[in-house]
Amino acid sequence: MTSVDLSGLVKAYDVRGTVPDQLDGRVVRALGSAFAQVVVLPEGEHGVVVGHDMRDSSPGLAREFAAGVAGHGVDVTMIGLCSTDGLYHASGSLDLAGAMFTASHNPARYNGIKLCRRAARPVGQETGLAEIRDLAQWLLDRGSLHDLTTAGRPGTLSETDTLAGYAAYLRSLVDLGGSRRLKVVVDAGNGMAGLTVPAVLGEGDLPVEVVPLFFELDGTFPNHEANPLVPENLLDLQAAVVEHGADLGLAFDGDADRCFVVDERGLAVSPSTITALVADREIAREVAAGSDPADVAVVHNLIVSAAVPETVSRAGARAVRTRVGHSFVKSVMAEHGAVFGGEHSAHYYFRDFWYADTGMLAALHVLAALGEQDLPLSELVAAYDRYVGSGEINSTVEDVTAATARARAWAEGQDAVADTLDGLTMTREQAPAWWFSLRPSNTEPLLRLNVESADRATMEQVRDTVLGLVRQES
Predict the structure, then answer these.
(1) pTM above the 0.90 mark?
(2) Which of 116, 205, 255, 452 has the most other CB atoms within 10 Å of its CB?
(3) What sequence ranges are listed for the domain Alpha-D-phosphohexomutase C-terminal (predicted)?
(4) How many C-beta neighbours within 10 Å does residue 377 have?
(5) 291 with 117: CB under 8 angstroms?
(6) Which residues of 431-459 are buried (b: 16+ CB within 10 A; e: fewer)?
(7) 1 lies in a domain?
(8) Which range marks the domain in which residue 345 is found?
(9) Which residue numbers are catalytic?
């Protein structure tokens, strides 16, 4: 039997591949067996919770994975259809390790697995995923999975529904009782928000009217890709917000762990702006509960807008900067006991959600912030939207080191200061102030550029100069 090379499937934070040529029942059963042996049994965990998205392949793959886990005497709780943050809620509330079958925003032919320890603690390349990959590869290379059982009895498989508990828990964290009535258009992109949004916002006692777009669960994504990070995938939502005279719009990705916001004019609100807004609210809540602001920490990655750490500092709290990537954000949040963390990719992390990311909770904060006052969303967020950013621009280069060195030399000639926490960040503090980040890809000869300044002309000048240096032929 031909074996699959798992090196191309197991990414930095999850498993992702095409079905069935890369990812099939045999592969995920081996991964389930390896997960039980590497993560569950050594840590003395007493079970695993497994959920899946709406892709046609997801239920079958989830069952095969569960069988691989159960072969080691580990009980498995199947929760069926859920969002990724729904799986994290189940992991936290049930105190179980977890596996979520989803390929997030990837096209229909893809599927994958996001793994976590109990209490939604992440499993990435440096925290067990590499060992899971290697053991699963060994099992597959043997050519037989019939003798995987290492326990006297196999674990049990049971089913439970956690959706109502997930919705109730989120609603307990943000009080919408004092909100004015709001109309919100929600684009689920035929993904899992079509299940979770009605559960969270569909209760009659909330002052929220939901106008649904593409709530039908359909893993073929017939209307547009479930990836709101791509501007064209927001067009339907933007048009609907204006058409319905809505107060705002929300767009979720395929597994509904990321949330993007559109204001009443149909204009996209930067995830950095949402990060600053939610940070302000979470700091204020901690202070109201008696915390000293200096003891409150908020984590942000190094490519969010400068408005984020400025907002945190203005509130008297501590802004903690970290590398890009959810495993870094989560670990730094746990280290500092941070109340909140945000990334420019629209991942939002909450201490009260087991330090895991949940777009739905961020959406509830935006609704509450808007409903507690009378300004439109565009005016409410203006205080947090003080800079002009380039967005992330990728360049394919032959010599990443040389390209980075050219950009650094130019920036140092402009009196910018270097930081190498994650790639290269150059910051110029005197007028006209700006910063840029150049981060190399871990898997491709790519450099990712982000630039920000207080005015568009400066941002564009720095952007174009750095791109010219990066893309210069050696």
Answers:
(1) yes
(2) 255
(3) 392-467
(4) 25
(5) no
(6) eebbbbbbbbeeeeeebbbbbbbeeeebb
(7) no
(8) 271-361+370-384
(9) 104
